[in-house]
Design a protein that fits this description.
Layout lengths: L2 E7 L6 E7 L14 E4 L15 E4 L6 E5 L4 E5 L4 H8 L4 E2 L11 H6 L7 H4 L6 E7 L5 E4 L5 H7 L8 E8 L1 E2 L4 E9 L2 H9 L7 E6 L11 E8 L21 E2 L11 H16 L5 E4 H5 L5 E2 L10 E9 L3 H15 L6 E6 L13 E9 L4 H15 L3 E2 L9 H7 L3 H11 L8 H5 L8
Parallel strand pairs: 2-4, 3-4, 15-17
Antiparallel strand pairs: 1-2, 5-6, 6-10, 7-11, 8-9, 8-10, 12-14, 12-16, 13-14, 13-19, 18-20, 18-21, 19-20
Helix pairs in contact: 4-11, 8-9
Length: about 450
């Protein structure tokens, strides 16, 4: 297979690094390299998790066959390069949905396993790895092994959330969730401050199977943390309008495109404050339940192609952290105060509840609350702010999401991920020469010394 040396980035477009790309055409062509390599699906991790500066990046996007679908039991087996968009097009008309989905469907199965992605239903249904029946993994010596919660379980738990560092994820067998329609029944609840928002998220009467909250991260004083909780579930047949026809028909949303990089001045505290005020009023007034397609509820930004260009040529970082339940309100409040005090504008700020921690040794979720922020890279002082956020997260017992990270230190990583030692025991047993390596793993000292 031919290789290409080219600049490459994650979805945040920061950092940009020179990598050697290899694109296999068939599953049989998936194989480990003689030196450092990392697999990459759709490139939707935000930072450097799927980068390998000076090394090889294995593109799996063409290894995307669906191999078996049991429409009676809802079991799907597919190659790891298959995207969630490709899967949804097949399973939804047959009455099934993904058990867990992140905020974009343009991600690969392998990426969902490697990052152990979570969704709006984590507090009810756990993370992606909780629904994986089995994996086929290609190890550093070229052997292909099956692992699952019952077969080679330690390797399975190191791979789920292991950021691709145990081997090439080749095939994924997934248990799906039954649904009665392609529609979502949704209700919004406005909250004037963070305390009200927490009360909404913790109230069983307002919570639903899928719940997420948008936060105005520029609000200060008594309005600190004001936001809108958006709660929904898959609509049952009796909730659909009479005569609505095929319950699984879903009209594709209108697609837009960002054709150029926005100038740096477009997203600034004033413009984002104006947008936030409008959004709070517009979305907060939707007090009555309403129906919407699953695309609009789960994947609103997917309707805007190349939306990452809105942050300009220098890109952005997504800072996502979780703070455990016992200290969640105080921790999230401290983070928002630090952010609003800096007057750094986050165009998107999202708060979600997370449920019990899964089995993945490097998986991100834990029982608590997760806050995600998109912040443009304007100057180096941003990273000093993010270091201060790290200190707050560690103080309150939380951690940062590796799939979104672009700059965490090795010391902070070890403080946040106490099962790192367990993970390394498994990695060394299957990859003693540390062939599976990425820019993120070297920065964090996973498998070697930090850069």
């Amino acid at each position: 297979m031919a290789t290409l040396i080219t600049p490459l980035s994650g979805w945040g477009r920061y950092p940009v690094q020179t990598c050697e790309l290899e694109r296999p055409e068939r599953y049989a062509d998936l194989r480990p390299a003689a030196a450092s390599m990392i697999a990459r699906g759709q490139g939707r991790s935000y930072g450097d998790a799927a980068l390998n500066e000076g090394g090889r990046v294995l593109l799996t996007e063409r290894v995307n066959r669906m191999l078996d679908f049991d429409a009676e039991r809802g079991i799907l087996r597919a190659e790891a390069g298959t995207t969630l968009a490709e899967i949804l097009a097949v399973i939804v008309p047959r009455g099934w949905f993904l058990p867990v989905t992140p905020g974009t469907k343009f991600v690969s199965l392998g990426g969902c396993v490697a990052a152990d992605v979570h969704g709006k239903n984590h507090h009810h249904d756990g993370s992606f790895g909780d629904h994986v029946v089995a994996l086929e993994l290609i190890l550093a010596d070229g052997s292909r092994v099956t692992c699952s919660p019952s077969e080679r379980p330690e390797l399975f738990r190191a791979t789920v959330g292991g950021m691709g560092l145990t081997g090439i994820i080749g095939e994924v067998t997934l248990k799906l969730a039954p649904v009665q329609s392609a529609q979502m029944m949704v209700r919004h609840h406005a909250a004037g401050n963070l305390e009200q928002l927490f009360n909404l998220l913790e109230d069983p009467d307002s919570d639903d199977r899928y719940t997420v909250a948008w936060i105005d991260c520029l609000a200060r004083g008594q309005q600190l943390g004001r936001g809108v909780a958006m709660c929904g579930h898959h609509a049952a047949l009796e909730e659909l309008p009479a005569g609505s026809g095929n319950a699984f028909s879903a009209r594709p949303g209108r697609s837009r495109n960002v054709p150029f990089d926005f100038p740096a001045w477009v997203l600034n505290p004033l413009s984002i404050a104006a947008f936030n005020a409008f959004y709070f009023r517009h979305e907060g007034k939707k007090r009555q339940p309403f129906l919407t397609g699953y695309d609009a509820y789960f994947y609103p930004l997917d309707s805007i192609a190349q939306w990452n260009r809105m942050y300009g040529k220098r890109g952005f970082v997504q800072y996502q952290c979780v703070v455990p339940d016992a200290m969640a309100f105080e921790g999230i409040r401290a983070l928002l105060m630090e952010l609003s005090g800096s007057r750094r504008a986050s165009f998107l700020a999202v708060l979600k509840r997370l449920g019990a921690q899964g089995g993945g040794m490097l998986s991100f979720p834990m029982a608590g609350y997760t806050l995600a922020l998109d912040i443009p890279v304007r100057d180096n002082s941003l990273f000093a702010l993010l270091n201060r956020l790290d200190e707050i997260v560690i103080r309150y017992g939380g951690r940062v999401y590796l799939a979104k990270d672009a700059r965490l230190s090795a010391d902070a990583f070890r403080a946040m991920y106490p099962r790192y030692g367990e993970f390394m025991e498994i990695k060394k047993s299957v990859d003693p020469q540390n062939r599976f390596s990425s820019s993120l793993s070297r920065r964090l000292g996973i498998g070697g010394n930090a850069r």
